[in-house]
Amino acid sequence: MNGDEATMARLMRAAQQGDRQAYAVLLEQAAKWLRRYFRKRIAAEKLDDLVQDVLLSLHGKRATYDPARPFFPWLAAIARYRWVDQLRAEYRTQTQELLEDTASEDSGEEPVMARVSLERLFDQLPPAQVEAIELVKIEGCSVAEASERTGQSPSLIKVNIHRGLRKLAAIIEKAS
Amino acid sequence: MDDATQALIDRITADTAPVRPLRKGRGLALAGLAFVVTLVAMLFLLGARHGLMTGHVSVDFLVANGLLLMLGLSCVTSVVAMASPQVGAGHDGPKWAIAMAGVLPAAGILAATAPDGVGLMHVEGVHCMVLGLAASVLIAAALFAWLRRGAPVSQRLAGFYLGVGSGALGSVANGMACADDSIAHLGIWHVAPVVIGALVARYVIARWLRW
Question: Tens of pLDDT along B31-42?
């Protein structure tokens, strides 16, 4: 099964009409895509929880998908929303080694995926905020460790995390 | 795929039922219906202002209510769209409408504080503001219900637009019954419901838009 845009949109339309088989295939493909999408941007041990969280959101809000519009930008908006939610909820995450690949690397829809990627969200933030969020929220460093590694004071780390997450929450639908 | 995710997918698909996609047209129709009901209620309860039915209204009346109407329509359209999230969706239209409507309070304050102006405070103005706020409640409720059914991912902005849009349309509905055509009155007291609505929706109502 090729989880490209046209196929996923068709499966989603069928799912909205109650087609269970199409829905099961769609959710499996979406889960695979989400794993790739989040990999570099969430601690590895939290990845499955986040993917499942997004699948539940997708299910609960499946009526909000407009069949006339592309599927992946809709899924990405929900994925980003849940991702920011998770970053905001967690104050410290013990992390394992982060995996290397990203959603766009093994996708056949690179231009679309690049537009909806999480990297695009981070591009909107000042580097100091990105650094603080990556170290504390994603890699699981303490504020003191992050302060030592970046040269930012502990209070500045906290301010940068707070401001960065607030901005991320405000630009979830932004593509570039 | 891990077992837990596969089990979740199995569970989700087991209780799949058809859903009706959230169509933008239905959201606009809902908001439009709320506006028409509000308008009719205001005209029924307060009566149409002098000259409304014959088309004899002042330029200030037309400009003020025209700007508020455009502001309201712009915000309502964005709020309805925000119920269906999409990376790449821009919701900047209302910002320009807000900037344009910002001319009204500026003109109102200038006119009210001029040597021959009426001053900033007067009882009729407060009365009009309260009526404008009351007229915005049904429209705000319709938009809130629509957003709750949807999946807004920018709750603060959605809340802000909800407040501005419902406040502006409520003010227009009240404006059809208000006899005061002065720019000092229209620019301050007919814009006040928009400002109050925006603040309340942005800081209070937006919290209930989380999902």
Answer: 999 999 999 999
Q: What are phi and psi of B142, to 5 degrees?
A: -65, -45
Nearest to A24 by CA among B8, B23, B158, B37: B8
In a domain, residue B5? The reply is no
- H or E stretch including B8? helix B3-14
Q: Which of B8, B89, B151 sits opposite A61 (nearest CB)?
A: B151
By Cβ distance, the residue of A31, A77, A169 closest to B9 is A31
Partners of B6 on chain A (C-beta within 8 Å) are: 28
B14 assigned to some structural domain? no
Q: Domain tally for chain B? A: 1
For chain A, what are the domain ranges? 5-170
Over residues A109-133, the mean pLDDT reads 79
Domain that holds residue B135: 25-209
- Mean pLDDT for all residues in chain B: 92
Whether the CB of A6 is below 8 Å from some CB of chain B: the reply is: no
pLDDT in tens, B137-178: 999 999 999 999 999 999 999 999 999 999 999 999 999 999
Is residue B20 situated within a structural domain? no
- Chain A interface mutation, best of B86, B147, B160, highest count of A Cβ atoms under 10 Å: B86
d(CA B12, CA B6): 10
Inter-residue contact A106 to A116 (CB < 8 Å): no
Instruction: Indicate whether B9 belongs to any domain.
Output: no
CB contact under 8 A, B91 and A173: yes
